[in-house]
Amino acid sequence: MSVEQTEPRRHRVVVIGSGFGGLFGTQALARADVDVTLVARTTHHLFQPLLYQVATGILSVGDIAPATRMVLRKQKNAQVLLGDVERIDLENRTVTSRFLERYTTTPFDSLIVAAGAGQSYFGNDQFAEFAPGMKTIDDALELRGRILGAFEQAELSHDHDERARLLTFVVVGAGPTGVELAGQIAELSRRTLKGTFRNIDPTEARVVLLDGASDVLPVYGGKLSRKARNTLERLGVEIQLGAMVTDVDADGLVVKEKDGSQRRIESQCKVWSAGVSASPLGKQLAEQSGAQVDRAGRVEVLPDLTLPGHPNVFVIGDMMSLNKLPGLAQVAMQGGKYAARQIIASLDGADPTHREPFKYFDKGSMATISRFSAVAKVGKLEISGFLGWVAWLFIHLLYLVGFSSKLSTLLSWAQAFFSTGRNEMAATEQQVFARIALEHMRADEPDGDSQNGESATKDGDRSAQAPAGQGRGGTQAAG
Length: 479
Ligand SMILES: Cc1cc2nc3c(=O)[nH]c(=O)nc-3n(C[C@H](O)[C@H](O)[C@H](O)COP(=O)(O)OP(=O)(O)OC[C@H]3O[C@@H](n4cnc5c(N)ncnc54)[C@H](O)[C@@H]3O)c2cc1C
Prior knowledge:
By secondary structure, the chain is an alpha/beta fold. The chain is 33% helix and 23% strand. Flavin-adenine dinucleotide is lined by residues 16-22, 39-42, 48-49, 51-52, 84-85, 114-116, 134-135, 176-177, 279, 281, 317-319, 327-330, 332, 456-457, 472. One of its GO terms (molecular function) is NADH dehydrogenase (quinone) (non-electrogenic) activity.
C-alpha cells in the first residue's frame, strides 16, 4: 500500500521511531506548515529510564508507555502509522514499513530517523535466550516474570543446590541500568518479599553485579562511583569487577578473571545490561549515503545531524555518532528538536549549507541506587544520597509524557517507597516464555529469518561491539 498524496501538497516529514528523538521531533513540528508521518514499530512512546521499575514490580506498563496516538491526538498535522521500517530509499525518498503482512510505502521530503538501539551481546546473541536485556516493555515484563518465578520455584524446591541457584540473581553490566536493576532486585528481596514465603527466606537471595570494568558506574567516576558501590554493598549486592562473561546457559554463566582464570556462577535468573547496538537501519543509511558506522552500528553524522549529500535526512539519538555524545534521552530529545528547527528553517528559505551545528546542552545524568539514594552529575556538580534521589525523582517526573502518567507514577512511587508494598507484582507464564517461543517459531519458518519483527534491532549486526562504557552498560563479553 502507498500512502496517497493529494495535490497541492505540503512538505512531507517522515519520522521513524516514537522514542525520545522521534516524539520530541514530531512535537516540535506541531506549528509548522508540514505533514508529519510518524512510523514506529510499537504503539507507544516508551520512557526507557524507568523500565527497570516495571521489571521489579514498582510501576505498571501504562505509567511509562503512553499510546503515541493519544499523545499526538491534538497535533493535527501528525499521523501515526504502526509498522516496522524495513527499507529506507534515499534516492526515491521513500520509507517502507511492514505491519504483519501489510507493506506501506511513505514518501518524504524530509526524514528524521530515530530508531534507537537494541541490546548488544557483542557477537554472542545466543546469550539472549538465557540472559535477556532490558530495552522494551516485553523485556521488562519477561524479566519481572523471571525474577518472581525464581523465588516461586525456590519455594517449591527441596534441593539445597537448586535453591541456591534459583536464589542467585546476576546482573551483567554495572552501568546505570545494571546498577539500578541490581539495587531494585536487592530491595525487592530484602523488603517487599520479606515474610511472604514459608519455605525460603527471600532476604537471603544473592544479587551479583558483574562488570569487566574496574568500577561501577565508570562514566561517573571517582567519588560518585565509590558512593554507588558503598550503597549497593550496604543493600547486600555482591559486586564483582574486572570480570568478563564468556558463556551463559540456562543454569548459570562462566566468568573470566583478569588473570585469565575462569569460574562459574550457578544462577537461573541472569540479566544483560552490558552493551548497545544501534538499529540496523543505520547500516542501510550508511550504505546509501557513504556515511560510516561505528563499532556499535551508529551512523557518523555531519555536524547538522544529516547524512553526507542528504541535508533533508537527519539521524538522531541512539542511532547517531557525533562528538562522542552519550546514548542519553536528552541527546535524542535535543536532536529531535534541532532537526525540526532545521526543517522549518529550510521551508523559510534558509540555506542548509549554512546551518549552525548541533550543540548538545548537557543537563546532567543520574542513576538511582535504592530507595532514597541516587547519584547525579550536573556539569561539575556531583550530588549523591537523598538529595540526589530527590533530584532524580523530580527530573523523571518532569520528563514523563502526559499528566496521567505523572500522577499514576507518583502514586506507585509513594506506595513503593513509603511502604513495603509494590503495586505491579503480577507475572504470567506467557510473559516469561513468549519471546523464546516466538524466536523458535521464526527460526522454524522456511526462510528462518529471526530478524523480522520485534527482535530486529536486538539481533542487529552480530559483529558490532560497543567499547566498554559507551552504552549505559559498560561490560564487554569475551569469547
Ligand atoms: C533500561 C534503560 C535505562 C535508561 N536510562 C536512562 C536514564 O536514566 N537517563 C537517560 O538520559 N537515558 C537513559 N537511557 C537511554 C535513553 O532511553 C536513550 O538514549 C533514548 O531512549 C534514545 O532515544 P531514541 O529516540 O534515539 O531511541 P528510543 O527511545 O529507543 O526510540 C526508538 C524508537 O524507534 C522504534 N523503532 C526501532 N526500530 C524501528 C524500525 N525498524 N521501524 C520502526 N520503528 C522502529 C522503537 O520502537 C522506538 O519507538 C536508558 C535506556 C535504557 C534501555
